[in-house]
Amino acid sequence: MNNALSYLLVSPEALRRGWTGWILSGATARTGGLELVWAGLVEASGGRSGLLVFRGEDAVAKLSAAVGSASEAGSLAGMLGDGMVSAPKAGSDVLADLAKLAATPVDALSQPVAAGAQRSLVLIKPDNFQFPGTRPGAVLDVFARTGLPLVAMKVHHMSVAEGMEFYGPVLDALSEKFGPEKGRDHWENIVEFMAGERPSAVPEQDHAKPGTQKILALVFEGPEAIGKIRTVLGPTDPAKAPPGTIRKEFGTSIMVNAGHASDAPENAAREIGIVKVADNSLKGFVESVRASA
Q: pTM of the entire structure?
């Protein structure tokens, strides 16, 4: 079935060790590019776990084979060990499983930031999803090497309205640098890159509709999170980024530069609200799938 669903459950220990990105890349490489359609954190397997939901032909069989067992060389379990990641077996009722997991969401963002810590919003940008491949997981893996805990994640399609609000502060800077007309043109290019459509080309009543481009929104939390995340991300211009940074390794231009990261705690709070990371409902996703069946 082309629209079959399955999922990977990343154990609390694997999540703590920062293996979610590696698991995402490994699953993509071993399944021929199943589509990631939902991502988030749930309470399962005795603690906070990562959940990656995929859609595509023979999704259950492909992900089950990708996980394999600790005795299978090249499988995810063979490389990480049994229990680090799991997937449904043939004959499983995937939607029923997801409905049970939806009853135990992790709502870390409703809690105050821990004393001495910061939150940082990261966006893995649409250029990483241009073709099915391992890039989204590889980018997440680099961010995870900061050692910062991942406290939220969401597959998101930024609307034009969200793009306009998110990049609103950039418009004045571009207008001052290039002039009002050219500055706005540059700004609309950014919104189009993130949302899939230019604000001036979309009727205002359609600005709030989900965009056509996919991003993966992540929230990390910990001491000096803003600086640690931005260090591994690298400067805006990939040509000026140090080797080993995300933008050097994956970016191609100042706009098409693989990722975004908040530059201050107050901006992180603003951006998390715009992308609505806290509203990432697995229950709503399950209900929408059932309604469309």
A: 0.96
Amino acid letter, 191: V
Eight-class DSSP state of 234: -
CA 265 distance to own-chain centroid: 19
Report domain extents, the chain.
5-157+214-292, 160-206
Helical (H) or strand (E) element with 285:
helix 282-292
Name the token pair of 66: 């990708």
How many other C-beta atoms can be found within 10 angstroms of the C-beta atom of residue 92?
Answer: 14
Active-site positions read 260
CATH no., domain 5-157+214-292 = 3.30.70.141
Residue showing tokens 């023979």: 58
Q: Provide the terminal-to-terminal Cα distance of the chain, rounded to the nearest Å.
A: 12
- How many angstroms separate the CA atoms of 272 and 109, rounded? 9
Pair 102, 283: CB distance under 8 Å: yes
The tens digit of pLDDT for each residue in 10-55 reads: 999 999 999 999 999 999 999 987 999 999 999 998 899 999 999 9
